[in-house]
């Protein structure tokens, strides 16, 4: 019989367990099978490796000598397997990009730009979730490479330790969507107090959304009725005048809906890009640059937001140098 690494693992297991019975249980085999294998190993090496005693077994001088050489070999093999598997995983990661995102009008442009810039054959996948915290946990666990999320002002995200981030927009104002014939739609900017009698809709499954709105309404001294629903449902109620809702300023124009900024911009979010620890920094720089360009495109397409950017002399109005 030729001695193999698996035989050395058996010897180490017996020595660590201190008995054939316990070692057999740890190895998932019967004690007679382990005893037979130990005899074959001893026959191959030409000497007894363990003394069988009533309380267990202990290595002989030959056994101690073999074990002292076996353990480094086993550790080296374990390291070889770990490093090889990591190298394979890195190779797979080089051919795929797993993106997570909360809802954003910039998303389509970002993906289009990435497909034009990424190497041929790279697999690009997208995972959408209303919860930024869920996406960040997926990045930390290695299930996503990056996550583009928003953080509601006053409601910090639960960010796992060690996640590198890049701030896309420090403070993005949230606008209000309402029916086209809503009285407040006649003005380019709306006061919160003008909406005190309206039914507001908010999606409570979006991290921080309800808490952020409740804080702003309380600060304005108004207590309007609030409905909880997803924003797809909200849209059908908004267009018939049954509700109003916060919305992203990049929201596209609709003939049956008006989108207006709030005076003083009391509602806001921060837009953030998080990446997996240890991810390629050059790739992350590309991801961020293309996201910034896609967001700028979306911002300038939305007329109310473009006017807001002009009033506030935003640097988004100027394309970055190539």
Structure summarized in a few sentences:
By secondary structure, the protein is α/β, with parallel strands linked by helices. The chain contains 10 helices and 12 strands.
Main beta sheet: strand number and arrangement? Answer: 5 strands, mixed
Q: How do the strands line up in the largest sheet?
A: 4-3-5-12-6
Q: How much of the polypeptide forms β-strand, as a percent range?
A: 15-25%
Q: Average pLDDT value?
A: 89
Shape: elongated
**Rg, alpha carbons:** 31 Å
SSE order, as H and E?
HHHEEHEHEHEEEEHEHEEEHH
SS elements, strand count: 12
Summed up, the helix count is 10
First-to-last CA distance = 68 Å
- Structural class assignment: alpha/beta
- The proportion of residues forming helix, as a percent range, comes to 40-55%
Low-confidence stretches: none
What would you say this structure looks like, in words?
- This protein is α/β, with parallel strands linked by helices and 322 residues long.
- The chain has helices at residues 5-17, 20-27, 31-45, 61-93, 107-117, 132-140, 209-219, 231-238, 281-301, 303-311; strands at 50-53, 56-59, 96-101, 123-128, 146-152, 165-173, 175-179, 200-202, 226-228, 245-247, 257-260, 268-275.
- Helix 1 (5-17) crosses helix 2 (20-27) and helix 2 packs across helix 3.
């Amino acid at each position: 019989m030729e001695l193999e690494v698996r035989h050395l693992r058996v010897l180490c297991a017996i020595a660590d367990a201190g008995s054939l019975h316990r070692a057999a249980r740890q190895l998932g085999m019967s004690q007679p099978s382990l005893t037979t294998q130990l005899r074959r190993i001893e026959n191959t090496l030409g000497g007894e490796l363990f003394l069988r005693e009533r309380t267990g077994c202990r290595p002989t001088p030959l056994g101690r000598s073999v074990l002292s050489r076996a353990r480094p070999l086993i550790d080296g093999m374990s390291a070889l397997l770990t490093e090889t598997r990591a190298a394979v995983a890195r190779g797979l990661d080089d051919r795929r990009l797993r993106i997570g995102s909360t809802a954003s009008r910039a998303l389509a442009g970002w993906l289009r730009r990435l497909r034009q810039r990424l190497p041929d054959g790279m697999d690009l996948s997208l995972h959408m979730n209303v919860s930024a915290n869920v996406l960040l946990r997926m990045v930390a666990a290695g299930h996503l490479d990056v996550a583009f999320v928003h953080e509601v002002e006053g409601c910090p995200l639960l960010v796992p330790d060690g996640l590198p981030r890049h701030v896309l927009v420090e403070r993005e104002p949230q606008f209000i969507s309402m029916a086209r014939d809503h009285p407040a739609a006649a003005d380019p900017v709306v006061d919160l107090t003008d909406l005190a009698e309206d039914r507001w809709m908010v999606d409570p499954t979006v991290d921080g959304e309800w808490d952020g709105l409740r804080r702003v309404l309380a600060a304005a001294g108004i207590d309007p009725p609030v409905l909880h629903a997803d924003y797809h449902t909200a849209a059908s109620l908004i267009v018939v005048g049954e509700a109003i809702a916060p919305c992203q300023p990049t929201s596209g124009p609709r003939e049956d809906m008006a989108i207006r900024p709030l005076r003083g911009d009391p509602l806001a979010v921060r837009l953030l890009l998080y990446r997996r620890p240890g991810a390629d920094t050059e790739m992350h720089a590309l991801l961020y640059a293309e996201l910034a360009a896609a967001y700028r495109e979306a911002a300038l397409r939305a007329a109310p937001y473009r006017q807001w950017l002009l009033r506030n002399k935003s640097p988004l109005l100027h394309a970055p140098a190539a």
